[in-house]
């Protein structure tokens, strides 16, 4: 596996990051364009807060972890300033999207804008400490914790009482966000949050019967035999497993480490398309037709997060199954997602591995999973002896 | 074209309708199961109000138009009774979905449950006149007209003022619903509504520059260069064109008839996949990557509504282009959507025409587009001399 170290590092630093540095800054209004075609040309100017915040995080993290390149820091600050000026409603909740100038377009109907904003301001505060950044990060984190039992708030369309589900996305993100926020939180706060989050991920959403993770369960943790309750997203589960591995290393929790690796591998076995290769986007755990029309598509982030999981698990344990799977997923990913004609990677393939949408960035794909994945794999490979 | 008359008629009466009669009634709780696998087995018991209402409409319409089969009437009443008992919130708005027993699951966050319910109760009232049916149909129709400027109500996630769009779906549905409701409405009411609806469809959403119909425009009718504003759905536009043809016949409006045929054919030319055949689900009018991951899939309703449009246009005008296109779309549709192994048709194909989801009914596919399409084509073919 280690032979790939330079491949991941160079792809990150010489291909992907320069693509975003060059094409995404909005020099007039601040913030970033993320709707970029195959060659980096802007085809839509809306600003999606998830992606604005994730890009702030990415450049702050690179400045912190790779090298103190002031251009990276300036780029991160450019996005943060735009979010400070335009990102929040009067309650401090981050909108879902803004127009090019920063006028709000879509209300804070879900909590993930807040999650990525908290992550962004915490990371930026680490490299450019500033009261405002720290305050926003902390206040937003508090908002998330307050909203976590009804994250959609007034935009929740579910009739109360009939079928109260909770979603895997929240504990899954919190398991990563809590560590990301560590520099700003009391140690006691972190210690009080982490075990609950691990419990939710590894004991509530992880179904004992199948060993797989469900996207939604009843509030009491039981299985809901409904479209939402039967939904699984292998990439989502595997991404959570590398968050669990990080926690297992920090807290020297070997059981958690073992369980996370077993769960990740089981999910990969389950989610792998035996006929055409690649990992499915969604599957119905009972084998019924999925509600999602895109269920059999192959998405970039699913594959990158899987490579992070496998390289991390291998670096920790030397597990041979992780090595075999890494090689298989690596081959598929580089063959199908990397664009030989232009920087950055494709995001959306059909079941057969053919490019479905020739974009490099859009409403959901920004400067995040490709560079974070490449960075993570690079760093994991460095740890292999 | 006329040689296909019996094919459509028999497929409707001997294949598709018996499938729903046999598999969908919930004899315990009332209403219909619509989540049916390839062989008609129920795989999910939730009840989606769009589909409940559409099935009521279908059986009432067949009883009215095909033959007074009391089993059909009873089946329609079974669905209507379930909706009367469980379908509405305290303001009389129809929920989006209910569980098997009728407990509400998802709030009335969009207006289309109301649209299909009004259509259902109006049709049922025609064949089984009853004050309650008539009242519900009328009251619901009034609700729709009241809600039409903000159809999502409190569930609207758009920030007011930045980019106020209106959606094609509403005038499009109203153009059909107004005729469906005719037996219950004053003639003056119909006459006051119809011109406005035709204007919206044919002059506001139909873009002069391209001759194509947009799914969303600014409230002042101008083009919005955004994901929503660039969105087109060829099947949706073509379906609306047969609604326009019906109106053109009723009001003896030859210009409308000509414009509807030209628009439908232009849309079909635009939406046809020249490489693999079939009609795309969504396209971006500027040729940018679609926001919709399912953009290049081939959906049953798109193809059936196109066959209705083409056969209707041909029956009215004898237009040769309609004949040519009918043959082409007919061949594609029967080859790919009809299931040779079990009744009813597949709904979801990938770009290449391969079945993507082996269901016969689900959250969005019920007893509606296949039987209505078969019925409509049959009746259009009867009119050809």
From TrEMBL, chains A, B:
The keyword Isomerase applies. GO terms for biological process: carbohydrate metabolic process. Keywords: Isomerase. GO terms for molecular function: isomerase activity. Pfam families: GlcNAc_2-epim. The keyword Isomerase applies. InterPro entries: 6-hairpin_glycosidase_sf, 6hp_glycosidase-like_sf, AGE/CE, AGE_dom. Belongs to the N-acylglucosamine 2-epimerase family. This is N-acylglucosamine 2-epimerase. It comes from Cyclobacterium qasimii.
């Amino acid at each position: 596996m280690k032979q790939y170290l330079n491949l991941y590092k160079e792809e990150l630093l010489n291909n992907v990051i320069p693509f975003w540095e060059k094409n995404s800054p909005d020099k007039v209004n601040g913030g970033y364009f993320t709707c970029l075609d195959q060659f980096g040309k802007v085809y839509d100017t809306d600003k999606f807060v998830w992606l604005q915040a994730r890009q702030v995080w990415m450049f702050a993290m690179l400045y912190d972890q790779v090298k103190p390149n002031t251009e990276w820091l300036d780029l991160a600050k450019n996005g943060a300033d735009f979010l400070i000026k335009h990102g929040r409603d009067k309650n401090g909740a981050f909108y879902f999207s803004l127009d090019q100038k920063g006028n709000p377009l879509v209300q804070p109907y879900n909590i993930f804008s807040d999650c990525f904003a908290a992550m962004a301001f915490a990371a930026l505060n680490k490299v450019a400490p500033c009261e405002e950044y720290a305050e926003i990060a902390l206040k937003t984190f508090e908002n998330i914790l307050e909203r976590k039992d009804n994250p959609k708030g007034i935009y929740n369309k579910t009739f109360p009482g009939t079928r109260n589900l909770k979603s895997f996305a929240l504990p899954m993100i919190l398991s990563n966000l809590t560590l990301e926020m560590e520099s700003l939180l009391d140690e006691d706060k972190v210690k009080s949050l982490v075990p609950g989050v691990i419990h939710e991920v590894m004991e509530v959403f992880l179904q004992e019967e199948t060993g797989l993770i469900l996207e939604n369960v009843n509030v009491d943790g039981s299985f809901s035999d409904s479209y939402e309750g039967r939904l699984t997203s292998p990439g989502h589960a595997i991404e959570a497993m590398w968050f669990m591995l990080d926690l297992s290393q920090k807290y020297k929790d070997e059981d958690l480490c073992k369980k996370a690796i077993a769960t990740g591998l089981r999910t990969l076995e389950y989610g792998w398309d035996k006929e055409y290769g690649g990992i499915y986007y969604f599957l119905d755990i009972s084998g019924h037709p999925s509600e999602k029309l895109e269920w059999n598509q192959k998405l970039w982030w699913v594959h990158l997060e899987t490579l992070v999981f496998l390289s991390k698990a291998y670096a920790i344990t030397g597990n041979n199954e992780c090595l075999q799977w890494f090689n298989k997923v690596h081959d598929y990913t580089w063959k199908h997602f990397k664009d030989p004609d232009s920087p950055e990677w494709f995001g959306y393939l059909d079941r057969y591995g053919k490019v479905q949408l020739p974009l490099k960035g859009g409403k959901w794909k920004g400067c995040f999973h490709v560079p974070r994945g490449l960075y993570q794999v690079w760093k994991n490979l460095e740890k292999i002896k």
